[in-house]
Amino acid sequence: MRNTFPLLVETDFPRLRRARLETIQANLGYRCNQACLHCHVAASPKRSEEMSWETMELLLSLAQQLGISRFDLTGGAPELNPHFRRLVLAAREQGLRVIDRCNLTILNEPGQETLAEFLAANDVEITASLPCYVEENVDRQRGDGVFASSLSGLRKLNALGYGLPGSGKVLNLVYNPAGPTLPPDQQRLEESYKEQLATRHGIVFNQLFALANMPIQRFGSQLLSTHQFDDYMSLLRSAHRQDNLAGVMCRTLISVDWEGFVYDCDFNQMLGLPLGGRQTRTHLAELRSRQLHGAPIRVAGHCYGCTAGQGSSCGGALEVVSVPAMGELS
Questions:
Q1: What b/e readout covers 138-147, taking b as 16+ CB neighbours within 10 angstroms?
Q2: CB neighbours of 15 closer than 8 A, spacing ≥ 6?
Q3: Which residue from 11, 99, 175, 248 has the least number of CB within 10 angstroms?
């Protein structure tokens, strides 16, 4: 796989500083039952990295110490970590809002027969990847049979109340473009998703998040191999919107890898960019005594993927939010 890091590290992207920390996004491991072309983690069934329970205990302790309100669990397929359910139970006992970034097909894997019921019983919010409502497009991007398996997973979740009005069980879907283009208007695309999934398959959900593909890992390597990297970066830079800087996720989130090292965002984690532009990595155990509010954020060329067009974050398209500028927002 070709590495885009040398092409991204030098950048003129505007400087940023942190606001109040609200979310810990934890990557529980790179093992996954899929190997998607757009995956910025390069996850696959062959990966073996996974977070230990000892590191998860540090996560829980830090969340309590810093007054964190939200755990965002990702991977790979986070549910494949053997401590996933134990972590969810402990986080919910602490009153944390828990989000599971689920690929839907994991709900049909051997050994995961009770996963959907577990998530529902513990009021875990589900953010599920479904890059299109057309079978051919999904299977081309994610593998044969993925669309049918994803629909099966969605039906299981709907049967448990997920996505139904008034149920309180949140089911959000995630869209990624198939190639080097920006996502279409999120609101209009959500309307199309809801109409098509309801009409064709009787499936409902709450919101659609439209995310831009990042020029790193598998997608970045594909761009280099097809000689589209420079054009894609030009697209991202030309579509940069200064207003989106206020809402980028790295201002209120930290990303933690499976070993417990901390980064400004999930994409920086995959590029190995230390927290806040430090020369060495910061571990959870060291973070306890460090002040995050107002600290600088490490930026690189890929950051234009978050500010281009309507903007892109783990919660979908960005909206201009009222967050203190911390001096170096732009």
A1: bbbbbbeebb
A2: 296, 297, 299, 328, 329, 330
A3: 11
Where residue 76 falls (left for φ over 0; alpha for ψ -120 to 50; beta otherwise) is left
Range of the domain at 89: 21-228+249-295
**Both tokens of residue 296?**
């600088």
Q: What are phi and psi of 284, to 5 degrees?
A: -50, -40
pLDDT tens per residue, range 185-219: 999 999 999 999 999 999 999 999 999 999 998 88
3-state secondary structure of 178: coil
Report which residue type is found at 215.
P
Tell me if 319 is assigned to some domain.
no
Q: Which two tokens stand for residue 258?
A: 């499976």
**Contact predicate 8/268, CB 8 Å:** no
What is the three-state SS of 206-268?
CEEEECCCCCCHHHHHHHHHCCCHHHHHHHHHHCECHHHHHHCHHHCEEEECCCCEEECCHHH
**Contact between 15 and 296 (Cβ < 8 Å):** yes
Q: Are 22 and 70 in contact (CB under 8 A)?
A: yes
Does this model's pTM top 0.85? My answer is yes
In a domain, 111, yes or no: yes
Which residues, 6+ apart, have CB-to-CB distance to 260 below 8 Å? 51, 55, 58, 59, 283, 284, 285
Q: What digits encode the pLDDT tens for the residues 248-268?
A: 999 999 999 999 999 999 999
The DSSP 8-state label assigned to residue 14 in this structure reads: P
Q: Using N-to-C axis directions, what is the helix angle for 135-142 and 146-159, rounded to 10°?
A: 110
